[in-house]
Amino acid sequence: MADPKGFMTTPREEYPRRPIEERVRDWNEVYVPGALLPIISKQADRCMDCGVPFCHDACPLGNLIPEWNDLVSREDWRAASDRLHATNNFPEFTGRLCPAPCEAGCVLAINQPAVTIKNVEVAIADRAWQDGFTPPRPPDRLSGRTIAVIGSGPTGLAAAQQLTRAGHTVAVYERADRVGGLLRYGIPAFKMEKRHLDRRLAQMRAEGTRFRTSTAIGRDIRATDLKARYDAVILAVGATAWRELDVPGRELSGIHQAMEYLPLADRVCEGDLEVSPLSAAGRHVVIVGGGDTGADCLGTAVREGAASVTQLDIYPLPRAERDEDVEPWPTYPKIYRLSAAHEEAGALETAPAADADARLFAASTLRFAGDADGHVRELHLVEVDERRRPIAESGRTLPADLVLLALGFSGPDRRDGLIDQLGLALDPRGTIARDADFRTNVPGVYAAGDAARGQSLIVWAIAEGRAVAAAVDRALTGTSRLPAPIGPYDRPMTTS
Fold it and tell me: Where does the 4Fe-4S ferredoxin-type domain lie (predicted)?
């Protein structure tokens, strides 16, 4: 604990964002380049080095947060990088994309603003790359065992890196034309520039991990044929079966799933397209769904030059502060949060009828109306109470010639045939069933990440990847030194 009074003398200061009028004109990350390092050592001083650090439990990776906070406060960046990478393969991803449940579990957050754990994490990760603290770590010897990882999102990449470093020969199969899963085609570049992903993939290639893109297992290669070629197969295909909105008018053109819309914007940034075929430019956009994916659509539509953008959230407007009776510390509270996209939309007044920023809360879609050509033109909605019951005479109509559905995901996509070809058992939620060792009902086949857990956070995805790697390593060799931060049945801390 470098400064025992730091939490009393230093106020919380977060990574500053670029001016709104500047950042909405490009796809670069929203933060001021280089602005974090001058403030981060003092922010790390705010950590109290608790005897029982609840931030450990709030983070499924078990990050050694007080340790690397102390090292950063002393500006020992190499040691801080070692501590951070001991539990997290990709801190440059989580430091940008994770909603930071660790901060909700910070002991200081009982009665003060939490330590800026997420900002400290990304500062360490960026400094590690800048100073060369993250060289490739190829294994000293090969085990002779071969493993296929299907899916190259954070779960698949974490599993592949751990198993490659343990000496196994690992091939990662990705059905898209580039590696990264939703990190590549789904997360907007203004939240994480793809250079961070490319840099980590180059490290993994140098360590020996092999990547096979444009290969859909079940369609391009039969799943049973792939299984016969490897000693173990890890399914990390994600939960990409999106939820639908079954209301009148859904068949109209101009209504799309968020994950049809967002990848096209990413492809524009990759240089594959000049303009997205679903561009929001000049259109009245309504986003149905109040979560992070909806916010990603919001920021993307603003950058594409939408005439208006409104986001509908079926939940009521959250409280500004934690409700200790309902969501006591250290659980992750449902409070009003202002993402960069919401800040932009609010300042630019993209939704004049919104309750706050660009959002309408307690709003439920009733139906869509279109024109003579069958294209959506209006969205009809109604306000709902806490039990989602319509409130009489609360209906309203929004102009809408592009509607984006961001309603979450129900489980893995079955269209490629992988699940049926292997004969995998599913649980009642539609996700892949597995036992306490991440094994499916098919010998030699393991399941991890959102495909088995259900839609979750990036920290849980990476933790799953590390844990399934330990399980596979143990099954193939009889023992394992790889860490297993979570089990398949572990869940976040909640009051329910």
Answer: 38-69
Question: DSSP character for 306?
Answer: -
The DSSP annotation for 42-63 comes to HHHTT----SS-HHHHHSTT--
**Residues contacting residue 341 through CB under 8 Å, at least 6 positions apart:** 295, 296, 298, 299, 302
Place of tokens 């470098």: 2
Residue 236 tokens read as 């990390």
* Cβ proximity of 406 and 297 under 8 Å: yes
pTM of the predicted model, to two decimals?
A: 0.97
Kindly state the tokens that stand for 79.
Answer: 């040691």
Closest CA to 185 of 263, 297, 264, 300: 263
CB atoms within 10 A of CB 395: 12
- The secondary structure element, H or E, covering residue 287 is strand 284-288
151 SS3 class? coil
Contacts of 132 (CB under 8 A, 6+ apart): none
End-to-end CA distance of the chain: 35
Bridge partner list, 288: 312, 405
User: How many Å apart are CA 185 and CA 188, to the nearest integer?
Assistant: 8
How far apart CA 298 and CA 262 sit, in angstroms, is 10
CA torsion, ordered 315, 316, 322, 327, to nearest 10 deg: -50
Q: What is the pLDDT of residue 2?
A: 66
pLDDT digits over 392-444, tens only? Answer: 999 999 999 999 999 999 999 999 999 999 999 999 999 999 999 999 999 99
Tokens of 72: 């950063």
- In angstroms, rounded to a whole number, what is the distance separating the alpha carbons of residues 366 and 358? 20
